[in-house]
Amino acid sequence: MRLSRAFLPTLKEVPAEAQIASHRLMLRAGLIRQTSAGIYAWLPAGLRVLRNIERIVREEQNAVGAQEVLMPTIQSAEPWRQSGRYDAYGPEMLRLRDRQDRELLYGPTNEEVITDIFGQSAKSYRELPQMLYQVQWKFRDELRPRFGVMRGREFLMKDAYSFDATYEAAVASYRRMMLAYLRTFQRLGVRAVPMVADTGPIGGNLSHEFLILAPTGESGVFYDAALEEQDWLAQDVDIEDDRSLETFFNQVTQSYAATDEMHDAQAWEKVPEAQRREGRGIEVGHIFYFGTKYTESMGVSVTGADGAPFHPQMGSYGIGVSRLVGAIIEASHDDAGVIWPDSVAPFRAAILNLKPGDADTDAICEQLHAADPEAFLYDDRSERAGVKFNDADLMGHPWQLIVGPRAAKEGKVEVKRRATNERFELSVAEALAKVQ
Ligand code: ATP
Ligand code: MG
Ligand code: MG
Ligand code: MG
Q1: Closest atom of ligand 1 relative to the 142 alpha carbon
Q2: What is the average pLDDT score of the chain?
Q3: Confidence band of 199 (pLDDT split at 50, 70, 90)
Q4: Atom 23 of ligand 1 has which residue's CA nearest to it?
Q5: pLDDT, mean of residues 408-434
Q6: Does residue 285 have its Cβ closer than 6 Å to ligand 1?
Q7: How many Å apart are CA 347 and CA 6, to the nearest integer?
Q8: How far apart, in whole angstroms, are the C-alpha atoms of residue 220 and residue 234?
Q9: Could you say which DSSP state residue 331 is in?
Q10: CA–CA–CA angle 399, 401, 405 (5° rounding)
């Protein structure tokens, strides 16, 4: 992609409405534009990041046996009346009426729709377990939309739903999802700590939120410092083996970690004082077991091995895909701009032509660009070098391939790693190998 032709509208001014770094940087780097309060358009570079996150989320959902579906954004009020949530959900739900005066809503979540779909087809315990997921837009009329895409009103969520025959099987599904989440966040280049979350009237301990530690997070968090070092994915896990899943789960949840809502002063006392950490975190995922709450209220049952009908056990599992774009930046930036983890970066490298029109620099830049025109953003503009350096740092490409006339004469490229500021003088072939 040539920058001179790309729609990458960077801003020099710091937008007044943006209170935190990630929101400012997303506007300045030309990733998003707000169209209404809490509603955003994704511009080319922002959409690339969003798609990269989605891809990793999908791969890890598929890896634990979840199957992708796509449900509509507009839902009927009917199943919500059955579950009892239509009135209970309150003003966060955007309610609509069509021309026949039927009650509709823009889905804030999908337990009712998926339970309805599953219930219409499932007849027997033999059809269990099932794990279905989608990546779809949600709408919640948040009281205070803020921090850009971190608390939007319209936002992209991965939501998965599990259906199991027994409590034990539901627990195994829950643990598989825990594994999928930890793998997902690791691949996204962020550390998201699983923390005990509220289970409400369901009870038990099968609800965890995943929080990226950051001072601008909206949740207060209490955790054991051991978690800062813990490698949750150190052991191999056999997802078909309940014992292996249990060992994994116990290991992941052994250290104290809770959000302020669930903080337990007694358990906290048991954490050695020097190990106690208090801070703030951004909720980027949430997994929840809720048993037969929806299958029971919505009258969904299947026939068991003994011929008697029973209500399948369910869980639901969300990841804030669009929130993650902001959260990753919150966790990975400096004064100059974004520092994208390699896996989600919109472009792997920027090629900075410091002297367009110079035969040597032009030739080397063209050669680099031709190697991967999709992944490399070629800054071919007739701008000053300083402007190019600033824009590349702002946009946060993991690598910069800097081509100036003197080095170009010798066929050399300066390669800069954005995260560490390391620099290497390399030949074109070596430079291309370096940024692979
Ligand atoms: P929060 O506590 O931040 O309001 P939540 O607990 O209401 O989030 P869930 O119902 O658990 O959200 O939804 C699953 C995930 O969707 C959350 O973990 C979060 O990452 C994301 N999410 C929720 N609300 C928003 C929002 N308004 N904007 C962007 N992402 C959101
Ligand atoms: Mg909420
Ligand atoms: Mg929450
Ligand atoms: Mg939540």
Answers
A1: 27
A2: 96
A3: confident
A4: 320
A5: 98
A6: yes
A7: 12
A8: 28
A9: H
A10: 160
Q: Is 38 in the pocket of ligand 1 (CB under 6 A)?
A: no
Nearest ligand to residue 109 Cα:
1
- DSSP string covering 9-56, please? ---SSPPTT--SHHHHHHHHTTSEEEEETTEEEEPHHHHHHHHHHHHH
CB of 318 sitting under 6 A from ligand 1: yes
Tokens 């929840």 belong to residue: 288
Q: Is the pLDDT of residue 203 over 90?
A: no
Average pLDDT over residues 76-92: 96
Residue 204 has pLDDT above 80, yes or no: no
pLDDT at 431: 98
Mutate to test the pocket of ligand 1, among 208, 221, 323 (most ligand atoms within 8 A of CB): 323
> If you search the block for the tokens 């869980």, which residue do you land on?
315
Out of 132-141, 231-240, 362-371, which region has the weakest mean confidence (pLDDT)? 231-240
Q: What is the pLDDT of residue 85?
A: 95
SS in 3 state form for 300-321? CCEECCCCCEECCEEEEEEEEH
Q: Which amino acid is residue 336, in one-letter code? A: A
Cα–Cα distance measured from residue 177 to residue 317, given in angstroms and rounded to the nearest whole number:
7
Find the ligand nearest to 142 CA: 1
Q: Taken in order 345, 347, 348, 353, is the CA torsion positive or negative?
A: negative
Please state, in angstroms and rounded to a whole number, the distance separating the CA atoms of residues 218 and 279.
10
Pairing of strands 32-36, 39-42: antiparallel
